[in-house]
Amino acid sequence: MPQDDMLALPMDLGGGGMGGMDMGDFAAPAPVGGLDAGGPGGGIGGGALANPAAASGLSGKAKAAIIVRLLLNEGAEIPLEELPDDLQMELTQQMGRMRIIDRDTLNSVAGEFADLLDNVGLHFPNGLAGALSAMEGKISRHTHTRLRREAGVRQFGDPWERLKRLPPEDLAELAQAESTEVAAVLLSKLDTAKAAQMLIHLPGPVARRITYAVSQTANVTPDTVDRIGLSLAAQVEARPDLAFDQTPGQRLGAVLTEAAAAKRDEVLTALDEEDQEFAVTVRKAIFTYALIAERMQPLDVPKLIRVLSQPDLVTAIAFATDEEDVATSEFLLKNMSSRMADNIREEVAERGKVKRSDGEAAFSLIISAMRDLVATGEIELKSVEEDEEEDGG
Fold first, then answer.
1. pTM to 2 decimal places
2. Residue in 253, 366, 212 with CA at minimum distance from that of residue 301
């Protein structure tokens, strides 16, 4: 059917909402105009259709308008905002040109639409842009970006939905690069939890300026918010692909976390001499047995204990002799069941001195188990910033 005779509406086959298939062209328009404005059928100003067979003469736009009106009357949630702007305008204009539909015509159009839905077996996204959105996260990031650029396809849809999916540290970076007013709008559009996480990654003075600027956003118009969202999303889209998801400090910190203590200290000493700022970043990314007591929530200790073998725990606690390591051992014992803690203390007393290689291996097993729990979202560690604030307080 010609494009100017069709109104594509996304219909969700799963129930009350809309979201996936074209419904505007479920019947080819007949030569007569029916209810379409200006058509020879006379349906716009002359009241109801006298003959239900006239439904076959309606254009696709008119039938789409009838279906949408029917769904709205039934209280269905129809995300018409997902349509391109020109189609939203066409639909609204078509509905404005129509007047009264008799019951037989309504039943005829609804039945025709129901038959179309019954015959649909599978529906694919709209064009390459829709396919890329559906495949995001399923194909490699390199392939996804390459296809988008080669086809000249820009990210479409609500830019704020894309921005809300960014990690809080990326949002904080965006906020710092923009004016305080733009950052205040960004903060206001985020979910409260994500907004709070973004603030954690901002320097204190910047966070204070942005939060104060929120009080100045009362008169911001929807058009302004849309333009800000499109601008920020375009910046995200224009970022070059990076080979690594983590920063250099995070990658090296993860390596040194698994390294023997002597080698870790040797490398950090060398880094201090070469690049002290980078050495600080690496230290923040290193996680050692001694840091468990500082970064772990007491209520999460039982989750860690469940995935550890008791012999490894006994070995680690028996090997822990430095003051900070002993503090972690006491933290773990204090937050497990008293019966298990007593048993472990007895075994540690019987174990005696532990070889360095065995002790460091036990430390690594505990740290690795805890990082796995963090990766799966079962536990959440306190941030470095929270630790610094507690120390400062």
1. 0.46
2. 366
